[in-house]
Write a structure and sequence with these properties.
By secondary structure, this protein is of the alpha/beta class. The chain has a domain of 272 residues: Purple Acid Phosphatase, chain A, domain 2. The protein is built from ten helices and 17 strands. The strands form four sheets. The protein has an eight-stranded mixed sheet, covered by helices on one side. The longest helix is centred in the middle third of the chain and has 20 residues. It starts with a helix and ends with a strand. The N terminus is likely disordered.
């Protein structure tokens, strides 16, 4: 998430070390060569977070390196597909006091992103228009509400892999059905689409609470604030309130942690979060988001996202989460990258209804590779594709990418999965493993 992709992804993360790390830097590494003439390699990147205003966008300094990387992909004779696993465009990382669309609409906002990031947009479009490499995009949480039409507006001809529901998608290449690529936000309480909450004030909205956290986090960074202008009142658990009140208390705890981690100069009762976004038209305060209590030990309530703790199972069903995640687990682990890793395992490898052996998520900004066994005892590989933002406070690196080289007809050949870093335009192999599909 930067926030929620990066700081909510601070919130949406923690750390689990990568498996088989080599940390070997070699300027001669060619990650896009399979040693032959066949065009069969799949490259995956995610969490680029292109913004409409480079004064506060999460990627600015790294744009030049991203252009260079994309050019290397374009001319690579062995690359067959380039997959963007979400958070390509960023509607979330906008300081809370700024009107995201500036009184216009999403199409105009997307065009502003294209203008601000012209070199990167052109680099993607050069690959798309040549039609030698298939370019596929799946949605993330930061581009949750960006429509297929508006993605196509600046990337004409791009392949979009979407669920029927806005803001979600999973891609399995036809040449490798055992591979699943998705952003991973559908499993996160703060980032998964929420078509249930706030319908009385924002009809049709699917925006989850992570959006508001990210708006506050972006304001924190613009203000460069170290001392909060206000404090969050404490509340006490409602011991007689049952499971619903217990879950809302856990929700409060996470909000309190987040607000304290990213202080802002504003008073918490100040209406300064400008929306005009996804059905919202109001201007809100921090206090509208944080659960409150009028009597110690009494009823806990919240203004925005009222009842969200009771609708998680319904949200999961609407978002096609196959293996149910208990609500208290989902709330407590919203800030943990390890939870994303675990859900790849639970939803795919340990799920008897799944045939996936390689799963790639983005979202957490924590590039890694983890090998395990599926429910049949077969080796399986999970990869997080990291991020390209300038300052990654979750993982140890930025400018990450994944390369998958399929096995050939040789009975001893294996499908290779490698994670790389492009820091300083130097390719470093971070982790690798292989399996026989």
């Amino acid at each position: 998430m930067r926030l929620l992709s990066a700081f909510f992804v601070m919130l949406i993360l923690s750390a689990c070390s990568s498996c088989n790390k080599s940390d070997s830097t070699d300027s001669e590494i060619n990650p896009f060569s399979n040693g032959g003439n066949e065009r069969n390699m799949i490259v995956v990147i995610s969490d680029i977070h292109l913004g409409a205003d480079l004064d506060y966008a999460e990627i600015n300094v790294n744009l030049n390196s991203l252009e260079s990387f994309l050019e290397k992909v374009r001319v690579a004779p062995n690359v067959k597909e380039l997959v963007i696993a979400g958070d390509l465009l960023d509607e979330w990382y906008v300081p809370a006091t700024i009107n995201t669309y500036q009184g216009r609409d999403q199409a105009d906002f997307v065009q502003r992103i294209a203008t601000a990031n012209e070199g990167v947009i052109d680099a993607f479009n050069n690959i798309i228009q040549e039609k030698k490499i298939k370019v596929t995009y799946v949605p993330g949480n930061h581009d949750l509400t960006v429509t297929a039409e508006n993605v196509n507006l600046i990337f004409p001809g791009i392949n979009q892999e979407r669920d029927d529901e806005q803001g979600l998608g999973t891609y399995s290449p036809s040449s490798m059905p055992e591979l699943a690529i998705e952003h991973g936000h559908r499993y996160n309480f703060f980032c998964a689409p929420d078509p249930i909450s706030n319908q009385d004030i924002a009809p049709g909205t699917i925006t989850p609470p992570g959006y508001f956290f990210t708006r506050i986090a972006a304001l924190h960074h613009v203000q460069d604030c170290n001392t909060a202008g206000d404090t969050t009142p404490d509340i006490t658990q409602n011991s007689s309130g049952g499971a619903s009140q217990n879950s809302l208390f856990a929700y409060w705890n996470l909000w309190k942690w987040a607000i304290n981690a990213l202080p802002i100069e504003n008073q918490f009762d100040e209406n300064m979060i400008v929306t005009n976004f996804d059905g919202f038209t109001g201007t809100y305060s921090v206090n509208d988001l944080i659960p409150y209590q009028t009597t110690p030990g009494g009823l806990i309530d919240v203004n925005l996202y009222k009842g969200i703790q009771d609708t998680w199972n319904q949200r999961q069903a609407l978002n096609h989460v196959v293996v149910n995640i208990p609500v208290n687990q989902a709330i407590a682990n919203s800030a943990s990258s390890t939870e994303s890793d675990n859900q790849a395992n639970n939803q795919y490898f340990l799920n008897p209804d799944s045939d996936k052996r390689i799963v790639i998520f983005g979202h957490s900004h924590d590039a890694k590779l983890i090998s395990s066994e599926n429910y049949q005892g077969h080796k399986s590989i999970y990869v997080n594709s990291g991020t390209w933002i300038d300052h990654n406070k979750v993982g140890s690196t930025t400018m990450n990418f994944v390369v998958i080289t399929p096995q050939n007809a040789d009975a001893l050949s294996q499908t290779k999965v490698k994670v790389y870093n492009y820091q300083g335009k130097v390719v470093t192999k971070m982790a690798e493993d292989s399996l026989r599909l």
